């Protein structure tokens, strides 16, 4: 799975207005509703909040990956939000989040759901990618960064394979 396959410009907001966790969840959920991905905003928001009650999905370093599975979701999709001022998201490092990737998935998309979480976590490990996302001004800018990230993964696999290590087998 490539992130560009589950994201598009309609699911990107480079200027999140919310100032708290609940408001952020609702603002990003609205993107899914407006894009026709989510049929019931309340049910979807409840799935995200239920997951947040287990443990905050703020992973530190100013980033969060809130995610939920719900019958209100038609297909797995990922939304991106950037908050210039930062939002308190109960992060372990106590820092506000500026970069948010929200994952919406139907209940039966467990494998793809976990793959999306892992891909986003890997992207957020890159200081270069995080800085690029923080500087992005438009949805088009964000999608370019996502395409670049997806292509870097392909190149990494080719390089490792050339060095005699088998990473992927058809």
From TrEMBL:
Keywords from the UniProt entry: Phosphoprotein, Phosphotransferase system, Sugar transport, Transferase, Transport
Entry-linked PROSITE patterns: PTS_EIIA_TYPE_2
Record keyword Nuclease present: no
CDD domains: PTS_IIA_fru (cd00211)
Localization per record: Cytoplasm
NCBIfam families in UniProt: fruA
PANTHER family for this protein: PTS SYSTEM FRUCTOSE-LIKE EIIA COMPONENT, PTS SYSTEM FRUCTOSE-LIKE EIIA COMPONENT-RELATED
Protein name stated in the entry: PTS EIIA type-2 domain-containing protein
Annotated source species: candidate division WOR-3 bacterium JGI_Cruoil_03_44_89
């Amino acid at each position: 799975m490539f992130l560009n396959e589950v994201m598009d410009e309609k699911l990107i907001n480079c200027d999140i207005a919310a100032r708290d966790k609940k408001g952020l969840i609702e603002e990003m959920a609205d993107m899914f509703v407006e894009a026709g991905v989510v049929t019931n905003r309340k049910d979807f928001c409840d799935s995200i909040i239920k997951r947040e009650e287990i443990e905050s999905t703020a992973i530190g370093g100013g980033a969060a990956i809130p995610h939920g599975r719900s019958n209100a979701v038609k297909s797995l999709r990922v939304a991106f939000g950037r908050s210039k001022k930062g939002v308190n998201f109960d992060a372990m490092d106590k820092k506000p989040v500026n970069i948010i990737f929200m994952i919406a998935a139907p209940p039966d998309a467990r494998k793809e759901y976990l793959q999306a979480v892992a891909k986003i976590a890997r992207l957020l490990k890159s200081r270069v990618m995080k800085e690029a996302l923080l500087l992005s001004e438009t949805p088009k800018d964000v999608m370019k960064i996502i395409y670049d990230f997806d292509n870097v993964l392909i190149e990494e696999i080719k390089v490792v394979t050339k060095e005699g290590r088998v990473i992927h087998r058809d």
